[in-house]
Each structure stands twice: as structure tokens, then as C-alpha cells.
Amino acid sequence: MQTRRGMIAGIVGVIGVVAWQAVATSQQQEPPDDQLPRFAPGGQLLPPVGWEAWVMVGSSTGLSYAAAPPPAAGAAPGMFHNVYVQPWAYREFIRTGAFPERTMFVLSFYEASHKSAPARAGFYEGDRMPGIEVHLKQAGIDKTGWGFFGFGDGAVPATMIPGAAPCYSCHATEAAHDQVFTQFYPPLRERLAR
To answer: What mean pLDDT is predicted for residues 20-39?
Structure first.
């Protein structure tokens, strides 16, 4: 009888270890290759592919980091800025509260529009403006661990914006979490509030 109980306990223990390893492995899967940063032979970042299907974490209109007068009454408040992050990086951030290595944020721009039926007031996103900006987390890329890249037409590889550019110091002093303006992105802000 004791031998049988010991055998059952051993089997249950093995099943528990296997189940735990399966869960741990599923949470640490490698990100899809098409969502990872890719570099040209010269070290320039290649434009991210399929970013339009990534998780949109925030949108703003008229947001500016420089002092500017308010728009005239009835005028568009400025461009819409949409921010996307890879689905795997988003899931990891929600799980841990930290941005994993190789996280990329894509900033895209849309003109503000308001002259379309049935809209009577307000603004919506019009046509997408050319180009995107990418904020990449990668150890060693800069002393901050993050690099900025601008893609003018979205197709040509981009050289990293030098670390002396104001975007680096602004993100270092003004971003709410790990060089990222999470204060502007509701799902990320809510995760950090937990």
C-alpha cells in the first residue's frame, strides 16, 4: 500500500513539473522574426514590416514638445500621432511591467480632417503622412539603451539619430518609465499603476 501511494505521489509530482515547464516555456517563447528589429549590412535599421497590425498603445493630436500657441478657433489642433508596439513586447510588458530587449515603438502621423459627411464637428484621422519614427530598445545601442530612427519614406534603412539629439535627453528626463512616455499610453499607464 505504501509503495502504491509513493508511486502515485511520484507520478503526480512528475506531471506537476512537466506542466510547470510547459507554462514557463509558453511565457518565454521567442518573438516572431517578422516583429524583430532587422539591420542592413551597414548597421542601419530596416523599416519594421507589418507594424500597422501591432498593438496601438496611444494616440494624440496636436501634442508638441515645444511651446506653441493654441490653434485658432475651428482650426485643426495638429497632426494625429499613433503609437504602436509589437504584440509580443506588449504582452511581456503587461506580464512583467518591463519593456523587453528589442522592443520597438512605431510613431506614425495622420493629418487632422473634419470635412466629411456625416461629421458636423470635431476632427478625425485623415490621410497618413509619409514616414514613421522608431524607438528601439537594444543594449549597447546608446548609453540609454534606446535608439531613435526616422524613416522619411518608410522604405529606406535609417541610421540612428545621434545620442546628442534632444529626443534622448527629453525621454531621459520627461518619460514616465524606462525612456518611454507611458503617461500618454493608457494601457501601459494602467499596467504601471498596479
So the answer is: 73
